[in-house]
Design brief:
By secondary structure, the protein is of the alpha/beta class. Helix content is about 25%, strand content about 25%.
Length: about 375
Amino acid sequence: MIGLGIAWRLAQAGCAVTVYDRGEAGRGASWAAAGMLAAAVETEPGEEPLLPLTLESQRLWPDFAREVEAASGVSVDYRGDGTLVVALNRDDAAQLRHSYEFQKGLGLELEWLNAAQAREREPHLKPGIAAAVWSPRDHQVENRHLGRALAIAARRAGVELVENCGVREIVLAGGRAAGVETERGRDRADIVVLAAGAWSREVGGIPPAHLPPVRPIKGQMLALQMDPAAPLLRHVLWLPRGYLVPRNDGRLIVGATVEERGFDDRLTAGGIFALIEGAWRAVPTIEELPIAEMWVGFRPGSRDDAPMLGPSGIDRLVVATGHHRNGILLTPVSAAVVSAYILTGMLPDTARPFSPERFAAAPSSRRQTAAGAAAQ
């Protein structure tokens, strides 16, 4: 999603852009995600520096969704229903109160609800829950539709999208990125954008000192099937263990595990059981719903769990990866700041704390303006 968004913005600016994808465009972590745009309720202690970036991207989302839909003819099912964070018992409520006060202290718009107020918004919550927090600005988008829409929008803007063609290595010449070597041969580029998510370190040609410190963080998920005409839930629900995301087509996304297992793509009994049990404890009526689908995705986690956007330390090689659990949320702002950096040589202020150079021992040489780009 990040690579497609950047490519689309560059093509709109008149650049000749080729996107290489090891599989189908919009798959990978983008396809596996839940599409939550939760800048408020997902902010945890220690993540204060990331908040301006997530809030800016959240602000961009309504217009970004409309623009993508207009350019592609595909609805991305952007929903502004808001998010509920639920505490099931007194211990949960104490933890929720702590998070609520921390987030309110950052100026975020949140409202504390008692059990009756929470069940008024979501009647299928189990009786006897302790409390909840209402976040009106944390929304959702159907990420699978978004991937399809961005691919169409990019193609219509002139992007060459090469699917099922992984980049074997980035070609360096004279200390600069000069193109890519793929299964179809070598292609020259003025600028190369590395936007390969959890697979960013798998691309060859980059000296070890400049490889982005990104790793795969496994997430198991499943979808239950509700009646679209009478869905059990209307809002995104954050639970003590996991979350529930209702879709317009009646699917109810249940997620997600967080596992340091490398690229192990196996579903496990323990992982799926934990997800279903966590959801059932909050919404017991899910036990009657059929399982529609189960899958595994790999979030791209960085050393500090924040994205890497901008100069890589190698001239004309730009990085856009490491978004961890915020990839869908940060798609609009990532596309904006990375394309602006390529076109102007300047990284916008909101993105400067997230330059990949924060992990380098020494600053890189200044990059030049791009005439084109290649991204994986």
